[in-house]
Amino acid sequence: MTYDAFVFDNDGVLTRPTDRSVLTDAIREAFAAVGVAEPTTETVETMLSPTVDSLRAVASDHGLEPATLWEARERAAIEAQREELASGRKRAYDDVVALETLGAPTAIVSNNQHETIENVLEHCSLAPFDVWYGREPTLDGIERKKPEPYYLKQAIDELGAENPIYVGDSRVDIAAADAVGIDAAFVRRDHRREYELPTAPTYEIESLAGLSELPR
């Protein structure tokens, strides 16, 4: 049975990943915005990708409400990535042109913020997508991000797809696809050369051009 929809992760698949220093600088700005002048390096690292429990712990340590701290963190990350997109430092990979020949509905499901995905679509030359989901900038959004399949299920339902494939570049992408019970293609770009996967994807490709070799 051929694939009737292609769902993509964004960072590292469609666009180059945001530089880590851009995000850590944004997190420090977020702490400053809520009155914390010098967060520790460990705290900043935790806030790159916290669980709800670790976020609550950081907020408690600084006398803050978790939602207040997270909203500041998400807003700072959104604005920092918007600047990266506008400057061209964060840009689409050249092989995204391969999406124009897929001949099936397409979607994006990302752990980045939904607003950031909208900014990607505004600034990058990507083929039109039928559906796109990033996480809400809320505590619920943290709990719903991959490897949880929440947003992936929503995208597939909205597409009305019966046999979609998810295209990603990380363990959580493969895990989310497995949780939904669909095939996954892992894109092994340069930043993933030594990256190990605990579970084998259905396919491994080196660029999006490899999608043309999948069942059509």
> Beta-strand percentage?
5-15%
What's the Cα radius of gyration? 18 Å
Largest β-sheet summary: 6 strands, parallel
Return the average pLDDT rounded to an integer.
96
- Element order, helices and strands? EHHHHEHEHHEHEE
Instruction: For the record, give the distance between the C-alpha atoms at the N and C termini, rounded to a whole number.
Output: 8 Å
Q: How much helix, percentage-wise, in residues? A: 40-55%
SSE-based structural type: alpha/beta
Counted beta strands:
6
Task: Identify the strand order in the major beta sheet.
Answer: 3-2-1-4-5-6
Overall morphology:
globular
Number of DSSP helical runs: 8
User: Oligomer, anyone?
Assistant: single chain
Q: Low-confidence runs (pLDDT<50, min 5 residues)?
A: none
How would you summarize this macromolecular structure in one to three sentences?
The protein is of the alpha/beta class. It has helices spanning 20-33, 41-46, 52-61, 66-87, 114-123, 139-144, 150-159, 171-180, and strands at 5-8, 106-113, 131-135, 164-168, 183-187, 203-205. It has eight helices and six strands.
Features:
six-stranded parallel beta sheet; alpha/beta; 8 helices; 216 residues
Description:
The protein has 216 residues and is an alpha/beta fold. 41% of the residues lie in helices and 14% in strands. The protein is built from eight helices and six strands. The protein has a six-stranded parallel beta sheet with strand order 3-2-1-4-5-6. Helix 8 links the parallel strand 4 and strand 5. Helix 4 runs parallel beside helix 5. The model has no long low-confidence stretch (mean pLDDT 96).
